[in-house]
Backbone:
């Protein structure tokens, strides 16, 4: 079977899971890896038995590489992707597609002119839990979706992350760091968004690091740390969204979808769970729980409230980061559309900016971009 040759750019911590999952694939392989710190690229190449560590320029000139996997910091996403596209290579990037909306548009424009594909994380919507939810929705188990909620509530990364400064700088914050998982889940489940109303603020201008090795250092906060708002979808559905680094704890669900016939819910104990992980529980509550023709394998979770725990029927329930990349490689071979597309990533990026623009201007933001819901994976 043909394998797509990949040049991996950015050999930081997140590269490990990509190296590991790509090595398991029948349709892709890492030909070379690069990093601004060349010793990091060399170490990863030795660790994962990659034949070549080199510069980005060498990756772009390598005819054996068809696709560039961009794992650099968000501020570098646009430059790396546009350079790769101009070199005639498909690109797949970690989220977000870009920091600035104009850069995201440039990436798609160059790709369209060159006839090349753009893919982008997050690909957790291709995990077992969210694929199962998508099938439940498509099969009509909760009727017509009418509303949704999505909440990411924690007290920030300075209490646990070894290098938390980045999360309070431009291109990050709770909205750009965690928001792509939640908004991508909503869009791939429910369709495109029509307009946005948002509120954003910096609750604490400085944060004190309590994790090692930087314990005691002060972070000057550059971006809003509490963002809340409302999405109006093309279908008319209304969703309430919140991403926050200002909350010590909560009992909020990570994601809920409310239909004319019932409710679907994701509730994880870990505040960094929810749509940013691949597996996990799915809860369903039908309006006629006692006599409805429900999901055949549903297991009563709490008889008092009549919620049912729904078995996850799709694969990719562990850390499967890169499944979107693999689907994109298959799409190149099969000449079809891929699921974790640049169009979805750009639509999500515009929604994120829409929250800030709405908050700053005190009015609705009209979303100009649209995207198609990606196809479900086929069940074995």
Residues:
């Amino acid at each position: 079977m043909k394998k797509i040759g990949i040049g991996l750019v950015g050999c930081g911590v997140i590269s490990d899971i990509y190296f590991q999952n790509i090595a398991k694939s029948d349709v892709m392989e890492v030909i070379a890896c690069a990093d601004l710190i060349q010793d990091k690229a060399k170490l990863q190449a030795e660790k994962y038995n990659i034949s070549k560590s080199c510069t980005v320029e060498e990756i772009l000139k390598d005819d054996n590489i068809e696709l560039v996997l961009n794992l650099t910091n968000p501020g570098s996403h646009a430059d790396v992707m546009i350079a790769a596209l101009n070199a005639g290579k498909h690109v797949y990037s970690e989220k977000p597609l870009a920091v600035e909306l104009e850069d995201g548009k440039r990436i798609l424009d160059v790709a369209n002119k060159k006839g090349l594909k753009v893919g982008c994380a997050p690909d957790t919507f291709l995990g077992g839990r969210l694929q199962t939810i998508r099938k439940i929705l498509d099969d009509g188990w909760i009727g017509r979706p009418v509303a949704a909620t999505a909440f990411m509530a924690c007290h920030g990364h300075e209490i646990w992350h070894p290098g938390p400064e980045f999360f309070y700088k431009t291109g990050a914050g709770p909205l750009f760091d965690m928001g792509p998982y939640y908004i991508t889940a909503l869009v791939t489940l429910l369709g495109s968004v029509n307009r946005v109303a948002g509120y954003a603020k910096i609750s604490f201008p400085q944060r004190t690091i309590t994790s090692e090795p930087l314990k005691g250092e002060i972070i000057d906060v550059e971006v809003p740390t509490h963002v809340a708002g409302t999405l109006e979808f093309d279908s008319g559905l209304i969703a309430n969204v919140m991403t926050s680094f200002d909350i010590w704890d909560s009992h909020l669900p990570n994601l809920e979808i409310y239909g004319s016939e019932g409710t679907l819910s994701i509730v994880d104990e870990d505040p960094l769970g929810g749509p940013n992980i691949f597996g996990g529980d799915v809860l369903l509550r039908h309006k006629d729980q006692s006599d409805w023709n429900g999901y055949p394998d549903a297991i009563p979770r709490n008889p008092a409230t009549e919620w049912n725990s729904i078995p996850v029927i799709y694969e990719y329930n562990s850390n499967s980061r890169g499944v979107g990349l693999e689907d994109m490689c298959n799409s190149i071979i099969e000449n079809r559309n891929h699921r974790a597309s640049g169009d979805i990533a750009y639509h999500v990026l515009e929604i994120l900016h829409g929250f800030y623009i709405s908050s700053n201007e005190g009015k609705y933001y009209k979303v100009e971009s649209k995207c198609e819901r990606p196809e479900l994976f086929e069940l074995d």
